[in-house]
Write a structure and sequence with these properties.
The complex is a heterodimer of chains A (about 375) and B (about 260). Chain A is mostly helical. Helix content of chain A is about 75%, strand content about 0%. The longest helix of chain A is centred in the N-terminal third of the chain and has 35 residues. Chain B folds into two domains: about 220 residues, P-loop containing nucleotide triphosphate hydrolases (Rossmann fold); about 35 residues, no CATH class. Classes of the chains: A mainly alpha (about 375), B alpha/beta (about 260). Chains A and B meet through helix 1, helix 9, helix 10 and helix 14 of A and helix 2, strand 6, helix 3 and helix 4 of B.
Chain lengths: ~375, ~260
C-alpha cells in the first residue's frame, strides 16, 4: 500500500487548506458570468448595429414580441421587424455558434496533437468543405438537395475529408498525435489543390469570386431553418462533451503515457474526439466558410484567463469565441457599409497581433 | 503482488524482452536494472498495460492485467512516467489533481475527499509551496516531486517509476528516491544508477539483453564479476554500512580479453 494519510474521513479540524483550489474556481466563475453577460450585450448589439441602425430598445421589443408576445402589439414597421427578426438575429445566432464551435474545437485539437498552434482546420476539414462548396458554386454539383445545396455540399466535402484524414492516420497502426497532424496537413493541401483546380478549370469569373468570398468566410447565408438548428445542436453538444471530458483532455494534453497511467486510453479518447470535432467543424464551416484565427487564438485567451484545466477553459473559450465573432461580423457589416467585408479578413487582422504577442510571451516563459 | 511471467516482447522482430519473469511484492521496493536497451523500461511498461507482451503475462494480485481496463489498472498502479509537457499551462495543484482521475466517474466533480487527497499528497512530497505555480516553470527536481505527488493522489497499491532520477543532480536523485522510500512502501523503480539501487531498493532484477541475469537482494545482485560481464566495465565493491557501493573503471583491452 502507498502510505497515505487517511482521507476517507478527514477530521474537519485538520482538513488541509484548499483556498488555492477555491481561488481558481472563483476566478473561473467570475469570468464565466462576466462573459455570459458580455455575450448577451453583444448579441443585442449585433442585432442593432448594421448598415441600418436600430435602437437597442427596439431590438429588445422585437425579440420579446416574437419569443414571448411581450409586447403583444407590433408598433413598428414591417421592414424593421424583418431586418431584426429574419436577417440579423439568425446571423447573430450563427456568429455565436460558429465562434463558440471554432474556439472549443481549436482547444480540443491543441490538446489532441499537443501543439499550441493547432487550429480547427488542421484536420483538413475546411479544405474538404471548400472543395465541396467550390464544386457546388462552379459546377452546380448539388447532390439533389436543392435549397441548402451549398452548405450540404460543403458538409459532405468536410466529412469526406475527415474520414480520409482518419484513415490515413490510422493506416500505419495507432493514431498518434504526430500522425494525425501529418495526415491532416497532407489531406488539406491535396484538397486545396483540387479546389484551386476547380476554380482554374471553370470559366465563370463570377463563380470564382463567390468561391473566394466563401473561402474567406461569411455569415451572410444565415437564416432560420434546419442548418441553424443543426449548428445549434452540434455546437452545444460539442461544448458540453468537451467540458465533461475536461480532465481527460488535461491528461491527454500532457502525454499519451500519462493519460494511460491515469486510466484513460489515449487511442480511444483521441478517436472519439476526432469524430466529435470533425462533425462540429464540418457543420460550422459548411454554414459560414473557413473563418480563420478564432480557433487558434481564442483557446490561448481562455487559458490565460482561467488557466489550462479544460473543465473551466472550454466554456470560457466558447463564450469568448462567440463574442469575438459577433463583433467581427458587426465590423464586417459596418466598416465598409453597405458593402460587406469577408469576416475572415477581420478575424485575421484582429487575430494575428494577438498571436504575435502570444509568441513573445511563450518565448519569455520558456526561457 | 505484481508478477511478470515469461514476458516476451519484440519491436518489429527485434526481441526486447525474451522470457522475463519476476515478482514485485507488497511492502518492498523493487529495482529494475540493466544496461541501455536491456529492456528495463519495456518491462515496466508491460506491468501497467502500456505494452502488451507477445507472450507471457502480467498478473496483479493473481488477475491477469489483460483482463483489466486502463481505469481498473490505474486504480491499483500509480505510474510516474518519463514524459512531461514542457509547455503545459497547468498549475501544480491541477497537475496533482489529475491523479484523482481514476477515482472519478465521468460526470463527477472533484469533491472534498479529492481535494484533501491532493493536499495530503502535496504535503507528503513537500511541494505545498509550489501548488499555485505553473508546472512548466519548475526545475527538474521539483517536477519529479510533483509527479510523485500526483501518483500518491491516485491512492494506488503500487507505485511504478520509470527512471525518476533522470536529469537530476545528485542531491535531487537522493531526495526523490528517499521520498519514494518514505511515501511508498510498495514500488517498482527503473534505475540506471546501481549505487542508488543499492541504497534504496529491497530487491533487484538485473536485465541483460532482454533476459533476467540475476534477481535477489542488492547484496546478491550487485556482484562485481556479474556486473563486469553485463555492463562490460570494471567494478570494485566496497560496503558502506549494510549497503554495497560500487566504483567503476573502464577495462583496458588486456583485461577485457582475459575475462
Amino acid at each position: 500500500m502507498v502510505a497515505l494519510e487517511p482521507t476517507t474521513d478527514p477530521d474537519p479540524q485538520v482538513l488541509p487548506r484548499r483556498d488555492g483550489a477555491d481561488h481558481t474556481r472563483r476566478r473561473a466563475r467570475r469570468w464565466t458570468l462576466g462573459l455570459m453577460l458580455g455575450l448577451l450585450v453583444s448579441m443585442v448589439a449585433g442585432t442593432a448595429l448594421g448598415a441600418v441602425y436600430v435602437p437597442f430598445t427596439s431590438v429588445v421589443e422585437v425579440i420579446g414580441h416574437h419569443l414571448f408576445l411581450v409586447p403583444a402589439e407590433q408598433t413598428w414597421s414591417g421592414p424593421r421587424d424583418s431586418i431584426i427578426w429574419d436577417v440579423r438575429l439568425p446571423r447573430v445566432l450563427l456568429a455565436t455558434l460558429v465562434g463558440a464551435g471554432l474556439a472549443v474545437t481549436g482547444m480540443a485539437l491543441q490538446a489532441m496533437v499537443r501543439n499550441l498552434l493547432a487550429d480547427p482546420y488542421l484536420l483538413g476539414v475546411n479544405s474538404g468543405a471548400s472543395t465541396g462548396a467550390a464544386a457546388a458554386i462552379l459546377f452546380g454539383v448539388t447532390l439533389g438537395i436543392g435549397e441548402h445545396a451549398l452548405s450540404a455540399s460543403a458538409f459532405v466535402g468536410a466529412m469526406a475529408a475527415s474520414v480520409l484524414v482518419y484513415a490515413v492516420a490510422r493506416s500505419a497502426g495507432r493514431v498518434t498525435s504526430t500522425r494525425l497532424l501529418l495526415a491532416g496537413v497532407a489531406v488539406g493541401y491535396a484538397l486545396q489543390a483540387v479546389t484551386s483546380f476547380l476554380i482554374f478549370a471553370s470559366d465563370s469569373a463570377e463563380g470564382a469570386r463567390s468561391v473566394m468570398f466563401w473561402l474567406l468566410g461569411s455569415l451572410a447565408l444565415a437564416e432560420w431553418g434546419q442548418p441553424l438548428t443543426l449548428a445549434t445542436v452540434v455546437v452545444l453538444l460539442t461544448v458540453g462533451v468537451l467540458t465533461v471530458l475536461g480532465r481527460r483532455l488535461d491528461a491527454l494534453a500532457v502525454g499519451d503515457e500519462t493519460a494511460l497511467a491515469l486510466g484513460v486510453s489515449p487511442e480511444r479518447l483521441r478517436t472519439a474526439l476526432l469524430v466529435l470535432v470533425a462533425l462540429c467543424v464540418a457543420v460550422v464551416v459548411s454554414a459560414a466558410g473557413s473563418i480563420g484565427f478564432v480557433g487558434l487564438v481564442v483557446p490561448h485567451l481562455a487559458r490565460r484567463a482561467v488557466g489550462a484545466a479544460h473543465v473551466r477553459a472550454v466554456p470560457v473559450a466558447a463564450l469568448m469565441g462567440a463574442i469575438l465573432l459577433i463583433w467581427a461580423d458587426i465590423g464586417a457589416r459596418v466598416l465598409l457599409a453597405p458593402q460587406e467585408i469577408p469576416i475572415g479578413i477581420i478575424t485575421a487582422v484582429v487575430g494575428a497581433p494577438f498571436l504575435l504577442i502570444l509568441v513573445r510571451r511563450l518565448q519569455a516563459t520558456a526561457a | 503482488m505484481i508478477a511478470a511471467e515469461g514476458l516476451r516482447f519484440a519491436y518489429d522482430r527485434r526481441p526486447v524482452l525474451d522470457g522475463v519473469s519476476f515478482e514485485a511484492r507488497e511492502g518492498r521496493v523493487l529495482g529494475l536494472l540493466g544496461p541501455n536497451g536491456s529492456g528495463k523500461t519495456t518491462a515496466l511498461r508491460t506491468l501497467y498495460g502500456s505494452l502488451r507482451p507477445q507472450q507471457g503475462r502480467v498478473t496483479l494480485g493473481g488477475r491477469p492485467i489483460s483482463t483489466l481496463g486502463p481505469r481498473a489498472i490505474s486504480q491499483r498502479l500509480a505510474v510516474v512516467v518519463q514524459e512531461s509537457d514542457a509547455e503545459s499551462m497547468l498549475t501544480v495543484r491541477e497537475m496533482v489533481t489529475l491523479g484523482r482521475l481514476p477515482r472519478l466517474s465521468t460526470f463527477q466533480r472533484t469533491g472534498t475527499e479529492d481535494h484533501a487527497a491532493v493536499e495530503v499528497a502535496l504535503e507528503r512530497v513537500g511541494a505545498q509551496h509550489l501548488a499555485r505555480r505553473r508546472y512548466a516553470e519548475l526545475s527538474g527536481g521539483e517536477r519529479q516531486r510533483v509527479l510523485v505527488a500526483r501518483a500518491l493522489a491516485q491512492e494506488a497499491d503500487f507505485l511504478l517509476l520509470d527512471e525518476p532520477t533522470n536529469h537530476l543532480d545528485i542531491r535531487y536523485q537522493h531526495e526523490v528516491l528517499g521520498l519514494v522510500r518514505e511515501v511508498a512502501t510498495s514500488a517498482v523503480v527503473v534505475l540506471h544508477d546501481l549505487n542508488l539501487a543499492a541504497r534504496y531498493c529491497d530487491d533487484l532484477v538485473l536485465l541483460e539483453s532482454g533476459r533476467v541475469a540475476a534477481t535477489g537482494s542488492p547484496d546478491e545482485v550487485l556482484d562485481p564479476a556479474l556486473l563486469e560481464r553485463v555492463y562490460g566495465i570494471g567494478v570494485t565493491r566496497t560496503d558502506v554500512g549494510s549497503h554495497p557501493q560500487l566504483l567503476f573503471h573502464p577495462l583496458d583491452r588486456l583485461e577485457r580479453l582475459s575475462r
